[in-house]
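Both lines are given unchanged directly below:

***
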Amino acid sequence: MTAPPPDIDAAVVGAGIGGLATAHFLRRAGREVHVFEAADSVGGRMRTLRRGGWTVDTGAEMIPSAGYPATWALIRELGLAAADVPRVPGALSLWRDGRARPNAGRPLGLLTGAGLSARARVELVRLLAGGAGDQAAGTLEEFAERHSPELREGFLHPLAAGFFGWRPERSAAAPLLAHLRSTGSTAHWRTYRGGMDTLARRLAAGLEVSTGRVVHEVAAAPCGARLTLDDTAVTARSAVLAVPAPLAGGLHPGAPAEERDFLAACSFAPMLRVSLELERRPSAAAGMRGFAVLVPSTEDDLINVVTLDHNKHPDRAPAGRGLVSLISTPPATASLIGASDAEITAALAERAERYLPGLRGMVGRVHVHRFPHGLPEAAPAALRARAAFRARPARAIDYAGDWVELRPCSEGAVASAHVAASRVLADAAERCPAHRVSPVPGKDNR
């Protein structure tokens, strides 16, 4: 008996950047795509909140000029101009010995010191040049132990914790080192004018997206896939799960073994970020200027990153007002993420007084951003399981997200979207020759 035709052609679960990019590539190839998003807006971990002249990014997305080829290709394809992706001045400083040291992560910092001794700077140059070789195998902690305590505790640990939420003993060294080497100098970091969700909103504008629609399960079906929602079930010729790996594993319990193994190995680090709308711009302490200050745990066991978002781009706060975000250390995140907004804000704002004196007296509205599934940890077990996952045959149900590439950033998400779209198209061509469509240009179906 012939199975009835599916209700929809291609379904994407999740309207973060990975899901929206996948839907875009499939639509560009001739597929009809419907995106289901549980939240009330698109963007996922790249959402932006807007109210009263403030533009509050829920995360800390930066776009390096190098090392993000898939992202930049998509930016150009969507017609974003250079003015839409401006440079972030004074992007990164390192807090050391009671003051902010500018030019961290850029060649000038290697000359001026950026708070590091001459020996540590030499180590950093060798590390960024790729001189570590096979020593990058294993965890970040195992790799870091081969370097001086200064480089380990003053640079590697805070960088991994502040931007990826990683605990060095849990995450692999190789993905972090590959990311640092490919992206180059922080002098070329850029952001999105109008908020970090700019790319997501531009993608969603050309797609059929249903927000506030929760998908509870996805299973293989004769037509391709069956999606169970709150009030109905729909069938699709293809489905892509563009949600964090732990959620994808729960949605698709019948996944083949090589998929289940990788999904189970892809653990995520929680992230906690508090954004404070300020009545005026604060006076910064001890050389603290520019956008982001990275704080080692040897200096502070509670706050890992302080960002002056009003310096990120002028549109982030009304004229004369301020916007500051505080990111907690991984141990503090684990202990605070279940606390109330008031408790989290009080703890972080009080500690932030050492960096921004008088901060608490300026605070207006507060936004607490909790991400239980913040960023993929890229654990060694996930690296081992990924080979079989990558080698699996194309199927009607596939996956997208930065965790697929084990690269916790938007570039990982966009790159995974290319792969997912290629695999979906290959599966459709195999199962439904009458519905052959154009492949995704320049990408294979890993």
Remarks:
- The domain at 8-44+197-267+378-435 is CATH 3.50.50.60 (FAD/NAD(P)-binding domain).
- Residues 267 and 413 are 16 Å apart (CA to CA).
- The chain has two domains: 8-44+197-267+378-435, 86-191+269-376.
